[in-house]
Amino acid sequence: ADIDWADLLAAANRALVTGVLAARVGDRVPEEVQAFLGTIQRRALERNSRLKRQLEEATKSLNIAGIRPILLKGAAVLNTAGPGYGARILSDLDIMVPARSMAMARQRLEAIGYRLYKPEDNPFAPMNLCRERDAGMIDLHCRTKTRYPGFDFEDLVGDCAEVRLGTARAWLPSPTLQALILILHDQLQERDYWRGLVDLRHLLDIAELARGPPGIDWERLAAHFPRGYPRNALDVQLATLELLFGAPVPVPQRPIWTGFQLRRRIVQLRLPGLRS
Predict the structure, then answer these.
(1) Over the stretch 9-25, which tens digit does the pLDDT of each residue have?
(2) HSE-CB for 159 with a 13 A CA cutoff
(3) Which of 70, 138, 157, 226 could pair with 96 in a Cys bridge, judged by C-beta atoms 3.0 to 4.6 Å apart?
(4) CB-based contacts of 215: which residues, under 8 Å, 6+ apart?
């Protein structure tokens, strides 16, 4: 009864989790809020349906050239999480191919109408490919954008299972590998660890992966992060995951630095002006 719905919906919109919020609260909300959430949920489901068809078409085109991509981030989560997570709003489609196949992959996607959106100077950056008729762009990767630790197609494909997208075939990372990619992206690539920021959407993805079968192998996940700032970044993300969502993460005795960074994140969430 004391929820500030305008504030909550604004936060959900910024984090692109409004569709998930709609699925969680059901009809236990004021009528106007229910109408708004229902509209967003329907539109998110329709958008994701279009993105899935787009992903199937792109993957099928890559398969013709003998390329089977790895699904990354949201594209992977939507093919792993339960049906109640289908309204998670995707911004784009991330896929990974071997470095030697990048030129051919681009050629195959351009053959079905894609064009390069904006060249990147960073050799680790993905190719951003777009078509005007689509709901979102395709980000074509050959490795993670992080340098340390960094992973390429060959490093990841061994922890993937084959998945069918209609008549097309792709590689779907295990939940543990999906969590690895999301944490690398937020904590190290986007520098959330150093800035004390939280990407709520991806944190919610990890919580969903942790709850569903087969769950996340936390020891195997930690083994991918070298000691030093990469392991610290992982610890802070897991501590945040436990605090905000009650995720079943291991709770070893955490160093003082992890506790400090966690408190810093919470303070910045409550007092955004301190972020600067």
Answers:
(1) 999 999 999 998 998 88
(2) 20
(3) 70
(4) 175, 209, 248
Q: In sequence order, what E strands does the chain have?
A: 70-72, 92-96, 115-116, 127-130, 137-141, 160-165, 168-173
* CB-facing half-sphere around the CA of 257: CA atoms within 13 A: 9
Is there a contact between 204 and 245 (Cβ–Cβ < 8 Å)? yes
Global pTM exceeds 0.90: yes
CA distance 170 to 163: 5
- Determine which helix (DSSP H) or strand (DSSP E) holds 209, and give its type and residue range: helix 200-211
Query: What residues form DSSP beta bridges with 169?
Result: 164
Contacts of 46 (CB under 8 A, 6+ apart): none
Instruction: Quote the tokens at residue 1.
Output: 């009864």
Question: Helix, strand or coil for residue 201?
Answer: helix
